[in-house]
Amino acid sequence: MSGNGRGAGFQPAAGEALPQEPEDLFLFRRIREEETEQAAEIETICFPPNEACKREHMISRIAAARDFFWVAEDRHKGKIAGFINGIATNEAAFRDEFFTDASIHDPAGKNIMILGLDVLPAYRGKGLARELVRRYRDRFLDRRLVLTCLERLVPMYEKFGFRNLGLSASLWGGEHWHEMDMNTPGILKAAEEYIRQLFAGNADGHGWDHSMRVYRNAMVIAESEPAADRMIVALAALLHDADDYKLFETENNANARSLLAGLGIDPVARDRILAAVNAVSFSKNRGARPDTLEGMIVQDADRLDAIGAIGVARTFAFGGGHGRSLEDSVDHFYEKLLLLKDLMNTRKGKEMAESRHAFLETFLCEWNAEMNGLTGK
Predict the structure, then answer these.
(1) CATH of segment(s) 2-182
(2) Residue-wise pLDDT tens for the chain (377 aa)?
(3) In angstroms, what CA-CA distances link 188 with 35, 165, 197?
């Protein structure tokens, strides 16, 4: 529903950017049990009577699925400004019973049926709805999100990343609804399969396994950066080498751009992903800090895979694949790898780099000792 996903009391202007960072304005968190009455009141403000969730249904929904009910608390007033909520199920299509029967909720369900995206009138037109959706999606990145909305709100939800599936079987409130979904797991799986095929046979340290490690590093870092868009981070990490000049002769991110278009990623998100991708390269961005938090995270994640034990292995794999001697490969440690720890952008990236950098130093001590014949081993 929209004031909420269902359409009442919510205008497309809500997709506009917040004037300040959302973290400065709102605390995003799970609803508290004592806030049930406040949520029920907000629902009546955002919806006409035929669409609003009844108080008793709100109570049972929060009791059954509180982990799936997230609010934006106004940091200055200490009151809820808006919320997003749903129930999880393995059912793929929306039905009206989801609104009234909280016992349908299955915490392990692979689909989340969004039952409300409520924003109080005083907070509309500031981008809070978009931010609530992003935070919810990022929290449940491994789940498919489904909602219904009135026809006039379809374009807005498409900008949020949802796909229009056509008219829904739902007739809630005597209205005709469009069913929309955001299949994040499917998108990420397709991107993973793409890089697996793109880098098939690569053994110089830039294979699909490298991209997957960068992806995993990036998601760990993103957990410590709640303001980051984890969907942007995930796709940028997976595709960060898809047009690497050392590997491909493409122009203008042709490989990544083609995949993103095929996945239905909207142009704004696509450009943010490509900007993060283009900020990763050490040689092209020497000394330059990415302009976005997502770019910083992916750059850190890539650099983490260049140091530590994996970094050592990748250096010699790349060197051997390009005719470099062992000594030439070791030179790369001093030209790049030993510099990376102090070039990390994020707190978590710096923390993760410490032990990996220490391993490089230990390796070089042993290397120099053996090369100089000073070891007794």
Answers:
(1) 3.40.630.30
(2) 444 455 433 433 444 444 567 888 999 999 999 999 999 999 999 999 999 999 999 999 999 999 999 999 999 999 999 999 999 999 999 999 999 999 999 999 999 999 999 999 999 988 999 999 999 999 999 999 999 999 999 999 999 999 999 999 999 999 999 999 999 999 999 999 999 999 998 888 888 999 999 999 999 999 999 999 999 999 999 999 999 988 899 999 999 999 999 999 989 999 999 999 999 987 676 778 899 999 999 999 999 999 999 999 999 999 988 899 999 999 999 999 999 999 999 999 999 999 999 999 999 999 999 998 865 55
(3) 35, 20, 14
Tell me which residue of 226, 245, 233 sits closest to 285, measured CA to CA: 245
Instruction: List, by residue range, all CATH 3.40.630.30 domains of the chain.
Output: 2-182
Reduce the DSSP state of residue 331 to 3 states and report it: helix
Measured CA distances, 57 to 40, 62, 350 (Å): 9, 9, 47
CATH 1.10.3210.50 location in the chain = 186-370
Say which CATH class 186-370 falls into: mainly alpha
pTM here?
0.88
